[in-house]
Amino acid sequence: MKIENPVLRGFHPDPSIIRVGEDYYIATSTFEWWPGVRLHHSRDLVHWELLDYPLNRTAQLDLQGVGPSQGVWAPCLTYDKGIFYLVYTVVKAFYCNMYDTFNYLVTASDIRGPWSDPVPLNNFGFDPSLFHDEDGRKYIVSMATDHRVPKKYAGRLVLQEYDPGQKRMTGPIRDIYKADKIFLEGPHILKRNGWYYLFSADTGTGEGHGQTIQRSRSVWGPYEMYRASFMERESEEEAWSVLTARHHRDILLQKSGHCDLVETPDGEWYAVHLCSRASEGRNPEDTRRFPGERRYMLGRETAIQKMRWTEDGWLMPESGTPVPQILVDVPNLPEVCFPGIPDRDDFEDTCLGKDYQSLRIPMDSNFISLTERPGYLRMYGRSGLASRFKQTLIARRMTEYTCEAAACLEFEPVVFKQMAGLILMYDTDNYLYLHISHDEDAGKCVTLLKAENRSYCYLTDYIPVKEGKPVTLRFSVKGIRALFFYQEEGEEERCIASVGDVSFLSDEACEEGWFTGTMCGICCQDLTGEGRYADFDWFEVKNRKEEV
């Protein structure tokens, strides 16, 4: 048996990993999606189960108003003396000159919670990481943003001590890395055999992404960067990366970098890292941002690589190459499987499944109900799809380029401002929305709305459907092509639209946000303020993996 990458497929970026006894846990970024921070658990590094989210109370996390791909960035999960620690950034302003990056710490005695209210840390930049030294002292390392024009350094990492007794940062803030060419982020510190290792992502998070490692005899530095013959470089301005796909654009696991490390009980070492699988789509050559670049609809995912220590105390991939591997040797651990998440949800439970996330806010009784009509999810129409505050929407990840989603709903709109249906969505500016509404001429109808970077158009007419009857909506994605269908009760299913390129739902194509991934969801809007509801009988998402 092999570990097959990615292990966490679809939108699971910035992985942080720990081992506690026989259990392994990975935390990944969630950005504007609620609840905050995705947690997975494994016993063998092959099979993973989704756990409860640690940031699941509004007292812990307020995302209202944050823009696309802002919110919760790069969590770092650690464990020390019976306590789990989670540090993370909440980004409130980005894509601007002066970033607002608020760094926090929460703790728990049980990974499943409850987690504490957040402790504010410093706000110098994003990607904070907590290091527990052998003498009991604790430190926070993060990258530092620079609003000056031009920036004084291409990349900077800062370190400060954290006092767990007083629950605050203490002592001086010191630079431990400054460079005029190589940008580093996502730092983690590891201590081994008297060396402090600074493990950092390099060169952004696109196709040039990679991972570097430095070491020092002092946590404060100076740090020496690892440079070895197996690393591939094409210029003096390029980072020395122990892991990267930047020179191999033909392999599956692109954008590889942003690593964290874990050791098994037998002394085997593994690195988790983000990666991404390209679609067939590309940006136009004349586009404003990333001209001609490949599009990644699934977002950034999580993969695992086996690592080994060299005789002179450096870390490198077991494969002997920085190129990320699709198939990786499993550790010497017994296999432990977990039940999978069913494709179809018949809404028989009184709470939503863990796989669902909403935008910026929890779906409380003001937005949904699973008890008002047992066996159905009632969604109350609230704000429109562009809202960064209060809209009724839940979604699951698109994890493969062969994907199908469908929902059966009952909805009786009386004006065109009332809508409910099925959505294929990257963010609030980019989506394909197959929905039921009401038109003055057509009456109750089905139509398909496209939003691409705030440019809107309807891809179908307003197609009349019967009042008082349920309607099933479905879309099917194969590669970058999608078909959209509807079916009235007792009638044949009809295809109402074929979209030849849906790859605009991707990291590279979106104008404002580009850190998440495509989601499949259901939602309801009522722009009259009346709150007209839709009842969803069931919702399913089928992702089908290609054979390796």
Task: Explain what this protein looks like in three dimensions.
It is a single chain. This protein has no helices and 40 strands. The chain is mainly β and 548 residues long. It has two domains: 328 residues, Tachylectin-2, Chain A (5 Propeller), CATH 2.115.10; 200 residues, Sandwich (Jelly Rolls), CATH 2.60.120.200. Strands 25, 27, 28, 30, 36, 37, 38 and 40 form an eight-stranded antiparallel sheet that branches. Strands 29, 31, 32, 33, 34, 35 and 39 form a seven-stranded antiparallel sheet that branches. Strands 15, 16, 17, 18 and 19 form a five-stranded antiparallel sheet that branches. The radius of gyration is 24 Å and the shape is globular.
Number of strands: 40
Rg computed from alpha carbons, rounded to a whole number of angstroms: 24 Å
Number of domains: 2
Would you identify the regions where 5 or more consecutive residues have pLDDT less than 50? none
Tally of alpha and pi helices: 0
**Mind describing the biggest β-sheet?**
8 strands, antiparallel
Report the mean per-residue pLDDT as an integer. Answer: 97
Could you say what the CATH architecture of the largest domain is?
5 Propeller
Task: For the record, give the distance between the C-alpha atoms at the N and C termini, rounded to a whole number.
Answer: 13 Å
CATH 4th-level superfamily of the largest domain: Glycosyl hydrolase domain, family 43
Task: Tell me the overall shape.
Answer: globular
What's the arrangement of secondary structure elements?
Blueprint: E1 2-4, E2 16-20, E3 23-28, E4 33-34, E5 38-42, E6 49-50, E7 71-80, E8 83-93, E9 100-108, E10 119-120, E11 129-132, E12 138-143, E13 155-163, E14 168-179, E15 184-192, E16 195-202, E17 210-216, E18 224-225, E19 243-244, E20 254-263, E21 269-276, E22 301-309, E23 315-317, E24 327-329, E25 344-345, E26 358-359, E27 368-369, E28 377-380, E29 392-397, E30 402-411, E31 418-427, E32 430-439, E33 443-452, E34 455-458, E35 463-464, E36 471-478, E37 481-488, E38 494-499, E39 519-526, E40 533-543
Antiparallel strand pairs: 1-24, 2-3, 3-5, 4-26, 5-6, 7-8, 8-9, 9-10, 11-12, 12-13, 13-14, 15-16, 16-17, 17-18, 17-19, 20-21, 21-22, 22-23, 25-40, 27-28, 28-40, 29-39, 30-36, 30-40, 31-32, 31-39, 32-33, 33-34, 33-35, 36-37, 37-38
